[in-house]
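Worked example 4.2. Below are the chains of a multi-component assembly; read each line carefully before continuing.
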Amino acid sequence: MSKPIITFENVSKRFGKMTAVDDVSLTIHEGEFFSLLGPSGCGKTTLLRMLAGFETPTEGRILIDGQDISNTPPNRRPVNMVFQSYAVFPHISVADNVAYGLVVDKVAKAERDRRVEEALELVQLGGLGHRKPDQLSGGQRQRVALARALVKRPRVLLLDEPLSALDAKLREQMRTELCTLQEKVGITFIMVTHDQDEALALATRCAVMSRGVLQQVATPNDLYEFPASRFVADFIGSVNLFEGVLAVDEPSHAVIRSPDLPVDIFLDHGVTGARGGAVWAAIRPEKIELHKKDGDAAPNLGDAPKGTNAVAGVIKHEAYLGGSSTYEVEIASGRRVKVQRSNLTRWDQEDFKLGETVWLCWHACSPAVLLS
Amino acid sequence: MEQSWKQAKAVFAAALGPPLVWLALFFLAPLAIVWAYSFGHNDGLTEIAISGTFGNYARAIEPLYLKIFLKSAWVAALTTGLCLAVGFPVALAITFASDKAKTWLLLLIMLPFWTNLLIRTYALIAVLRTEGYVNQGFEWLWNLASVFAPLGDFQPLQLLHNNFAVILGLVYVHLPFMVLPLYSALDRLDKSLLEASLDLGAGHLRTLFKVVVPLALPGIASGILITFIPALGAYLTPDLLGGPDSQMIANVIERQFKRANDWPFGAAMSFVLMYLTFIAIAIQALLAKKTPEARG
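Applying the procedure described above to all two chains together yields the following structure tokens:
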């Protein structure tokens, strides 16, 4: 990865007695599409606003290109922001909106016009410069906000919930466009979102926050497959968590025994950092296979010893989602396990009926072990 | 409530009837009578003959009275300008105050509204007169300075019964009319627009003049209008605070109805004043139509 562009050093922000951001240290590198992800009120927006300069840290420092900008006013920072409400100036034309920051910078008229037209082309609003913002759709207004920020050629572009106000179809489209745009302009993007799909689809790296604290900073793939805590596992996607103890912990394999499951969970790797006490096995719904129950012999996926990683249960709930279906299967302990199954053929889901007894089984590499 | 007002005509009429009757009887009818008077002339001491003459209007725009009309308009305009200059920062400050402080500040703005105008005007007299609080304060400072340098006797400032006192009184009385519409316009402003301006590199002054003021224009226009109109027709303030040269049109009109006992002429001048008001409202409506996008 290239050189660091933004560094948070032990940054805290308190509003009265409320701690919005709690001792965050974070480095973001040049050219990254970085996403701050978390439930509402987790402090992600405050972190972004501190970067823009609308809030100052109570403690700690924020560096851009090695310069401490903690107390620099927003108009003197090499960052620009796309606001959640877009904040397009309603009283001036689209072109004037985009030119606003260039006029402030005293860019000459000819160069200004050229850069405005370029920026509008970039966000596919070429030729709409003369329009007033109230003649644009919501999606187009957002493009104006993007062009207005990008035309200043900032070191970092900040995006506050950029897609939350768009309808589902447009959101999908804008996602792809944002990605392409970032590759084209090569500017570091930092995006705040509460939508995990958005973060996973767009970001090169994500930081998951909860109650002002950074929970995990990782690539989308690592966040999903190797979550660091129960909070992250649960917040990103859907998960089945089984609390238990480590019965066996060898370098080559481990076994977790959970009171919720009649069988052991077998893992094909050892657990690092376990210090005794409770551990959690996290198994994603799509990593559990559903099998017909034709007799009492449990299916075996071959990579786990017989009598592990397979339980019987009854289908209690089914949700057909088109591309896949999710099932809730009740096992002997009364615990319901979420299972997701892809619709590989058009008749795929007809096999499994509500109330049917089925086998659930999973590979030895599927569960993630969580220590907190 | 499935029925719309249009369907429930009886309810509509019952609710709207009494106020309409009240307005017709006690506002429109007297106004019509005065309007009719303006086309009449005195016939003996108490009778007014309505002869359809335009003589009263012709007299109303004679240089003597036209000058007073113009002066009233000038005083009202100056009052409005000063109210805007003082009121805009006040409204801006209230907008950015904390929610708790906002309530109290608005209350402070409203408080003079709930006090009788006469009492407020006399209070101002107590402040401004020769032995008033301002002069007392100055005298105290003067005497204090006299200890260090011989300044001679203190000459009290002539603050009352002149145009200065009238303008001061009018600004004081009309400030809430200006602050409240300005506040409501500024409070509606999306604060992220201001942040966007700062974010794009603009300073606070540029943000104020390029974003805040243009977007608050409708509020500024209505503030100007509802300050200018009552200031134009001000009667009590110039009467009590003004000197011999600071009478405004309302004082002249009053004199026609009372001392001069020339009701037709007073009526004509009243209507000239009303027409001026209508013109002001029409101009504002035209301006508002021109900038529809700034209203939201």
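Take a moment to check your reading of the output against the notes. Residues 63-95 of chain B form the longest helix (33 residues). Chain B has a mean pLDDT of 88.
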